[in-house]
Amino acid sequence: MSYVRSYQEILACIDSIDPAEYAQTRNHLSGAVTRLSPYITRGVITLPLIRDRLLVNHSAEDCAKLIQELAWREYFQNVWWEKNDAIFSDLRFPRADWHHQDLVSAIVNAHTGITVIDEAVKELYETGYMHNHARMWLASIACNLSYAHWHTMGKWLYFHLLDGDLAANFLSWQWVAGTSVNKRYTVNQELINACSDIQQADSILNFPRETMLELPTPEVLTSTEPFTHDTLYPDSEEVLSVSGAEVCIYTPWTLNPKWQSEQDDTRRILVIDPVWFDAYPVSELVLDFIVRQGQVVIPTLEVHYGRYEEIAGLDDAYSVRTIAHQTNTQWQVEFASNDTLFPTVTGYYQSFFKYWQAVQDLTSSK
Q1: CB-based contacts of 142: which residues, under 8 Å, 6+ apart?
Q2: Which of 56, 132, 316, 365 is surrounded by the most beta carbons within 10 Å?
Q3: Measured between alpha carbons, how far is residue 68 from residues 59, 109, 176, 340, 341 in Å?
Q4: Do residues 247 and 266 lie in contact, with contact meaning Cβ atoms separated by under 8 Å?
Q5: Residue 364 scores a pLDDT above 80
Q6: 305, 306, 311, 315: CA torsion to nearest 10
Q7: Cβ-count burial of 202 within 10 angstroms (0-12 exposed, 13-18 middle, 19+ buried)?
Q8: Is the torsion defined by CA of 223, 86, 171, 256 positive or negative?
């Protein structure tokens, strides 16, 4: 299936959500998940927009769990703003028990023998999607059973995800590995069976969940391979000079079609910055999605493969604006802020629990 959607189709997806069913079934692989994450990650829709549209037709009680899950994404973004590149290394609790910093071959080749995990990896390669709980299980197997460092495995998953967000991806891996909070997330076959339609009786995960961290690495998980992926940039025409023009610059994470939409004659340029796409590569499927989704919701969008400052005529542009993002802080432009769920809850919180408590304290005091 194609995930590219028009803006109206995305709004219709939001309006079709049953938040009560989401809360009850979201942990199951066939549960009522929203599938909105690619559009959230790419900035096409904002978190407040989702919340506000949900609350038009549903009670605050029914929406509470979904809003809390949206807050996880905002929490990760806040951590990135506060900690910058520190999110790409062990954040608080470095581990000395890693066996390697390569890819686990059985996982990336879908040969673990754990049916749900292998099928999830195959779906990832085909569609760019993986259920959030499958991501957590996979990460736990990689980090807490194979003892592969989370960063390289995280790069592999990020490479394939349509909703690849640097903060949400790498901080989620750290949460599972116990390097951002002092607890590791464990999984076993019983848990996977409870959250899927496949009931597997025998696998390398047939053990009590609480014993996972005491077990030796199964033989099937000991083979490794290096991360060798690169972003393959397509041949493209050079963006014409923007000298004298009003210019709006977009990143792959700020493709909001409503931003500055009243300006008809503005040049709108998406920057695919190799500083980020060389360091954290994405697949052809992902890069194609970014560009096509952007051009569907912003029909006049041009694409510049290169550094922002390499755009011809930029110094002579009438105006240059962008939405602030962690990847464009060095640009010499006029920044617009992004809409957030809880704009007054800022700063670094060491855990989501502490962040969520601050949110609740704020809302209860109103």
Answers
A1: 104, 107, 148, 150, 153
A2: 132
A3: 14, 34, 19, 13, 10
A4: yes
A5: no
A6: 150
A7: exposed
A8: negative
pLDDT at 2: 79
Q: Model's pTM, two decimal places? A: 0.97
Asked if the model's pLDDT at residue 221 lies above 70, the reply is: yes
Domains of the chain: 7-86 (1.25.40.80), 91-225 (1.10.579.10), 246-332 (3.40.50.620)
Look at the block and give the residue holding tokens 């993002």: 325
Distance, C-alpha 81 to centroid of its chain: 15
290 and 305 in contact (C-beta within 8 Å)?
A: no
Please, are residues 160 and 166 in contact by the beta-carbon 8 Å criterion?
no
Report the C-alpha gap between 98 and 217 in whole angstroms.
12
